[in-house]
Amino acid sequence: MIKNDRPVPIEVHDLTVAYRKKPVLWNIDFSLPEGHLIGLVGPNGAGKSTLIQAIMGLLPVLSGYVKVYGHPLEKNRQLIGYVPQRESVDWDFPVDALDVVTMGRYGHMNAFGKLSKQDREIALSALDKVGMADFAKRQISQLSGGQQQRVFIARALAQEASVYLMDEPFAGVDANTEKAIVALLKELKDRGKTCLVVHHDLHTVREYFDWVMLLNMRLVKFGPTAEIYNEENLRATYGGKLVLLAEAAEKLITKS
Amino acid sequence: MTPDLWIILTGILAASACGLIGCFLVLRQNAMLGDAISHAVLPGLVIAFLVTSSRNVLPMVIGAGVMGIATAYLSELLSRTGRLYKDAALGIVFTLLFAIGVILVSIFTGQIDLDQECVLYGEIAYTPWDTFTLNGQSIGPRAVWILGGAFLINLIFIGLFYKQLKISSFDPRMAKAIGVSERVWHYALMTVVSLTVVAAFESVGAILVVAMLIIPGATAYLLTSRLIVMLALSVLVGIICAVGGFFAASYFDASIAGFMAVVGGIVFVLAAFGAKLARRFARA
Amino acid sequence: MAENLCCLPKPQRNLSRNHNRMDFWELTVRFFSLADANVRQVIAGSILLGGAAGALGCFAYLQRRSLLGDALAHAALPGVGLAFLIVGQKEFVPLLLGATATAWLGALSINAIDRYTKIKLDAALGIVLTVFFGLGIVILTHIQKSGSGSQAGLGSFIFGQAAAMSRQDVVALAVVTVCMLSVVTIGYRHFKLVSFDTGFAFAVGLPVGRLQFILTTMIVLAVTVGLQAVGVVLMAAMLITPAAAARQWTDRLPRMLMLASIFGMLAGLFGSYISFLKPSLPTGPWIVIVVSGIFAVSILFSPRRGVLIRILRHYQHRGKITRDHLVKSLYRVGMERENWYAYYPVSEIAHMWSFTPTELRSGLSQLTAQGFLEREVDMYRLTQNGVSAGARVTRLHRLWEVYLTRYLELPGDHVHRDAEDMEHIITPEMEEQLSQMLDHPVFDPHLQPIPYPTEQKGV
What we know:
The complex is a heterotrimer. By secondary structure, chain A is α/β, with parallel strands linked by helices. Chain A has helices spanning 48-55, 97-102, 117-129, 145-158, 175-190, 205-208, 225-228, 231-238, 243-255; strands spanning 10-19, 22-31, 37-41, 63-68, 71-72, 80-83, 163-166, 194-198, 211-216, 218-224. Chain B is globular, with a radius of gyration of 19 Å.
C-alpha cells in the first residue's frame, strides 16, 4: 500500500456490521483517495446505505473501525458532510429551506452558540450553489422532490467539510436536478474535496465518477473506474448473494 | 386581585407552560408520551406523599420527575429488548405504573389526601386560597408561583437549547451525525415535561395537563410553517383555552379544567378548517 | 383549605362480605368453587373481557394503533354522562349506547384528523382523548353539582369496579365476544392483510376502509362494555399488554391471537381473584398487574426472544467456545510433538490458550464427561474422539480461511480472526457444503494442512 504523509479522508478497517441480526457488511476494508469522486455501487440490500451510516456512526459495528483523516469520528466530525436519504425526515416540520441549510452550521458551534451573520451568509451561498436561493423562505413541504434533495445537499455544503458522504442523492429527482448535482460534485472535486456517493444507475457511473466501489456485503472491487468498472467485476458484484456467507454470518451474530 | 382573576391566571400559566413544551412533543410524534407521563406520575406522587406525610412541593416534584423519566426510559428499553412497537411499549409501562398508583392509593386510603378523581381532573377553583406565606404574609396562590416557575423554566430551556431541540426533532439522523445526541435531548425533554406535568397537575389534573400539552401545539402546527411562530401561537391558544374555559365553566356551572379541554377542541377544529380554507384560497 | 376537598375516596363495593371470619384458603375455595352468584358473574365477565380484548388488541398492535383503546376508552365518557342526563338514572342499556356512540365518534374523529390534516396519528389520538374526556368531565361535574342521588357510581367508569358488574354486563360482554370471534374468523385473511400491509391491501382491491371500520367498531364495543369493569385507563392495558406478551412467544398470527386471548382471560380470572381476597382493593388495577406479570414472564422466558433465554444461550455458546479451544490446542500440540495421547497437567494446558480459571475447569470437566478427554489425577489427555474433535475444529477454521480468500478475495492476513469466530459456528451441513464448493482443499492460505477425518482413522 502506498503510504502518504497526509492521512486519507476516510479509512475503514475490517468493518463488519449487522442490522437486526442480519449480516449486512462483512470485513470491509478500504481507504478513500483524496480529491476523487467515488461512486458506491451494488445490488439492493448490498449494504451501501449501511456503509455510509456505519461510517457516520449511526449504526453500531460488530467489529472494525473507521478513521477520519487519521482520527476517530468523534474528533473529526466536522470534516464530514453527510447527505442522508430523503425519506428520513418529517416534511411537515415548520422550517423553511434556509432553516434546513443553516442546520448544517450547528456542528461548528458549541452548545450555547448563537448563529452568526457569517453562518447565515454561508447558508445562503450554499443554497445559491444548488440553485435554490429563491426558495430560501419556502416551507419544505412545498418543495418538489428534486428541490428537497438540493436543499439537503446545500446543508452538507454549508458544513464546509472536506469529505462528503451522499446516500442516493439522485434518487427520484428530475433531469435538471440531476445535472445540477453532477455539476456540483465536479466542482467539489476541483476544489480538492472527496465525495463518496451511493449510486443506483449503472449506466451513468462511467460518466460521473472517476473511482468506483463495488459492494455486495463484502468489498468486491475498489479502484479507478477506467480500470475496474467492467463486465466481469459487475457480474461478481451482482451475481447473487453469498448464501453460505450470509448463513454463517447470521449464525455468528445470533450467538454473540 | 379577585379570586376569579387568580384562577384565570393559574389557568393561563398552566396552559402556556404545557403548550410551549408540548410543541416539541407534537413535532417529535411523542404526543402520547405526554399522556403516559401524566398517568405514570401517580405512584410517584403517592410515594412522595407517604414518605414525607405532607403535600410539600419538592418531594412531589422529585417523585413525579423520577416517574416521568422512568416511563420514558422503561418504554424505550422495552421496545428495544422486547422488540416491541414503541406505542405498545409505552402503553404497557404507563398502564402498569398507573395501576400500581391506584392500588397504592386504595391501600393507604386513610393516610393519603389524594382522591382518585381529583388526581385526574384537579380543582383549579380552589387554588386562590391555597397560598404561599412568606414572613406571615400571603404572597399569592401557591399554584401561580409553581406554574409561573414552570413556565419560566420551559421558556429558558427552549430558548437556551433551541438549536438542539430543533435539529433533534426535525432530523435525528443528521443530529446524531453532527454530534447532537438524540437520546440526551429526548430525556432532557422528558424531564422538563415531567416537571411541567407535576406543576400543572394540581390545578388542572392529570388528563387535562395532557390536553394542554397536545392541543395548543397541534393547533399551532396547523397554522404556521415557522417554528418560532408555532411556539408563540401555542401560548396564545393556551391562553384562549384558559380564558374561554373559565367563562364557559362559570356559565354552565361545571369543571373549569374540563371546559379548557373542550374549548381547546373547538379552537383546534376551527383551526383545522381554517387551514384547509386558506389552502383552497391559495390554490385558487 | 384545599386539602380537605380532594380527600374522600369513594367507597368500594365488596365482592364478598364477612371476610374477617374467613382465612386465605377458605376464600380461595369459595372463589374457585363458583358458589357465589356474584362471583360467577365477575369471573365470567372478566374472562370474557380479557379474552375479547386480548384478541382484538393483536390487530391494533400490528397496525401500530395500540393506544387506540386508551383514546376510545376516554372518548366513551361523555356518552355515559349524556345518556344519564337524558334518561335520568343509571340504566344499563342507555349508558352502554351512549358510551358506544361517543367512542365511535371519537374513532371517526381520529381517522379524520389523521387523514385530512398534517397532524400525525399520535397527536390525533391525544387530541380526541383529551377533548372528549374533558367534555365527559364537564358533564359529570355538572351532574354532580345538580345533585341527583342516583348518579353515584358514574365515577366508577373512570377506575372501574368489576364487583359492580351486573348480569346485563356479562351478557353484553358475551354477545360482544361471540360477535368478535365470528367476525375475526370469517374475515381472518382480510384482516391479516389489512393489518400487515395496508397499501398492498388497497392495491389488491380489498375494501380497506370497511375492514378497518369493522375492526374499530369491535374495539369500540369491547371498550365500552369493559369500561365498567376495569375503568378507562386500565381498559387500554387489556388491549395492549396481552397482545404484546403473545408476540413474544410466536411469529404467527393465529397463535398470537389465541395466546393473547388466553393471557387476557387468565388476567381477568386472577385479577378478580386477588380483588376477592382483599375486597377493599379495586379489581381493575389487579387485572392489569396480573397481565403485566404475564408480559414480564413472556419477555424474560419465551424460548424465542426471552431475555433470560438469550443470556443463557450466550453462556452456553461461550462454554462451547472454550471446549473447542481446548481440544484444538491439545490437537495442535499433539501434532507438533507427533504424539496425540500424551498427558498434560492442568497448569500446562492453561498456557496453551487464554482461559480464565473457571472456564478452564468447567471446560475440562465437561469434555471429560462427554468422552473427549481422559483424566488421571490432575493430568488430562485426548481420547480418540478428542483427537477427531480437535481435528474438526482445526479443519473448519482452515476451510473457512480458504473460503474467504477464494470467494471474497480477502487478503490472507485478514481471514484468521474471522475464522477464529467461525470455527465454533459451522455446522456439519455447512462443512459439507464448504468442502464441496472449495473442492476439498488440502492447504489453507497460510499453507497449513487441512486435516480430514480419513487421515485420523488409523491413529
